[in-house]
Amino acid sequence: MKPDSAAIRKRYDRIAPYFEGMEAVMEGLFFKNWRKKCWAKVEGHHILEVGVGTGKNFDYYPKDARITAIDFSEKMLKQAVQKRDRKNVNVDLELMDIQSLCFADNSFDTVICSFVFCSVPSAVKGLKEVYRVCKPGGQVLLLEHVISSNPVLAAVMNLLNPVVVALVGANINRNTVKNVKACAFTSVHVDERSSDIIKLIEARK
């Protein structure tokens, strides 16, 4: 049985105070540069960040944009609130699940997520919600780790996935590019700088 949102939320609530420390090495070596590349592609004035977590993207927010950021973990959001106040970041933070967004259709110029869909129980449902709230002609930017195209490494990732999900609630074997292409976006492009397991996906509504 796949974990539901409540089970995954509890896992993120549990690790929230230690989350930045847990990922510090990977953040410094890899994720930080990818976040910069992803946020450099943001367009428009009204931006939605889905899965804000502890606020790791605050340093990359465009200065002149109106930004709303959500997370489904109350404890992770609490960390983000503290960081927002400490850094004086201009962002509205809300507790919300990507699978059921409380925003009107066609609300945002850009919807952006970084390392989020690994933790969404129903990735397709989450993508449909992201598509719904994005304005016509707007863009969805996804920075995600995905299953490897190497059969041997993919087999290892599939083998380890239940353990990783049980510990932190994140799947390491998602095929997010395929899921995005299955949605109704007019175009889907994978940044040429993407690696085998980290993909920067640009989708246009």
From TrEMBL:
In this protein, which residues make up the domain named Methyltransferase type?
A: 48-141
Protein name, as recorded: Methyltransferase type 11
GO BP terms, alphabetized: methylation
- Give an example GO molecular function: S-adenosylmethionine-dependent methyltransferase activity
Q: Which InterPro entries does the entry mention? A: Methyltransf_11, SAM-dependent_MTases_sf, Thiol_S-MT
Q: Name one Pfam family in it.
A: Methyltransf_11
Keyword terms = Methyltransferase, Transferase
